[in-house]
Amino acid sequence: MSSSNPNPEEEDLDEMLAVDDAAEEIDNDGGDIAMDSDGEGEEEGEEVLLQNDSIAYFDVPQDSLFAIAQHPVYPSLIAVGGSAGQEADAPGAGWLFDTSAAESRPVLPASYASDPANAEWSSKTTQLDSLYALEGHTDSINSLCWTYPQGEYLVSGGLDGRMKVWKADVRPGAGVKMTVVGVSQEVEEINWIAACPSQNYANTVAVGAFDGSVWVYTIDASDASNPLQIIQSYFLHTGSCTAGAWTPDGLLLATVSEDSSLYVWDIWGEASAKNLVNDNGMTVISLTGEDQRFEVEGGLYSMAIDPKGTFVAVGGAGGAIKIISLPRLASPPSSQQQIRGKSSSDPTSGGQILASLHAQGDSVESLAVAVTSNNPPSTLLAAGSVDGSVCVYDATRRFAVRRHISGAHDEHSVVKLEFVSNSWLLTSCGMDGVVRRWDLRSGGVTGTNAAGAADRGLVKEWKGHSGGGEGGGVLGFVQGQTGERIVTAGDDCVALVFEA
């Protein structure tokens, strides 16, 4: 379901927000349920319907799946991680599986509905087998990522503070060979791991820890004496480091914390070479709760950087979102540009609070940014909240609310949001156990169980996980570049494959 239009043309932040407004703070206030086995509350003889829209499932795990990662070159190769059991001392566990074995369900003519044999065949789901077990963590695996640009390494992080790395030799049609590269343990607990997107700094990852520290590693299996090389380590956060994201060029790393601080780190010294770093010599942006314009009482828990690297959005307690401009680490202007005057590509320091948004009533747990495929393109920011709502802002219109979907996940926490690349389509998952897709251009519903959602733009929803107050929920998903297949990680010990 990817867009057929070409990639949108680049546009400067100057086109999104007037220079005179840069320092201005903008206020914007603005299913089926799994039943208990004892049948309590059911009418005698009442039929309980359980809906499963998946085309394949992976049910090897014995406990919750907290993390999921998709190979950047072979999108059918999926890694999931969680706990090996429900015991307090259960070790962490993870697996690799291949979704290419999942058979698509054909669109059948209406006449097939009267044929029980065909109906049964069309509803079958494929059981997926484990290709490899990720072992070596003494506590739950809660973060996974493949390195860029080729997915050469798989990196796991756990509640035991360990970061473990495997080298992946993918053999299309013949499986994958995994080789342990090394283990690092510098902290007591890892919160997240993010891969650097730059080809110039391949196989680099950033790690955020519960103690607030931030670490950057480059992985090189050819160096047997030091395969996991620590490039940088930072200790300015005074609370747990809850989220991190790289700029699209991989030159800067932004992190947030429960102490309501935001730091944007100059990992490779590019900003320092242009005299854009702060007095501490490490950051290009340093914002904390001491600045009352930036303070978010209760902490920051989510963040996203727009595809052009012009701003970072951070979300936190009470539904607060702050929009901060990012530096432009541009090359010096040409002589022709100098004659014409200051170029829009000149290096700028960033750090301006562009907007302060507050349209949701509870903590913002997930943020996503996309540039749409229309001409001129729009930059959209989507925010998912613990109150079950999804709010979409239009960055090209001073972050005005474009759509507020108050009951996106039936008052259950929204766990993750992600746009289908270069499109108006937004995918969301939540603790209600449902995955939904929204078309932000207009309303419209297809499929079943979508009554009353026409004005919200619901396109489709997929069920199969438990949730809705009965435990379970979807703790993560991946959907590739096209969004044609969605693979989930469930709190109910299963991963499901859905087809759009």
TrEMBL record:
WD repeats lie at residues 134-167, 234-267, 407-448. InterPro entries: Quino_amine_DH_bsu (IPR011044), WD40/YVTN_repeat-like_dom_sf (IPR015943), WD40_repeat_CS (IPR019775), WD40_repeat_dom_sf (IPR036322), WD40_rpt (IPR001680), WD_repeat_multifunction (IPR051179). The keyword Repeat applies. Residues 8-45 have a biased composition (Acidic residues). Residues 332-351 have a biased composition (Polar residues). Residues 1-45, 331-352 are annotated as: Disordered. Coiled coil: none annotated. SMART domains: WD40. Pfam families: WD40. This is 60S ribosomal subunit assembly or modification protein. It comes from Conoideocrella luteorostrata. The gene is SQT1.
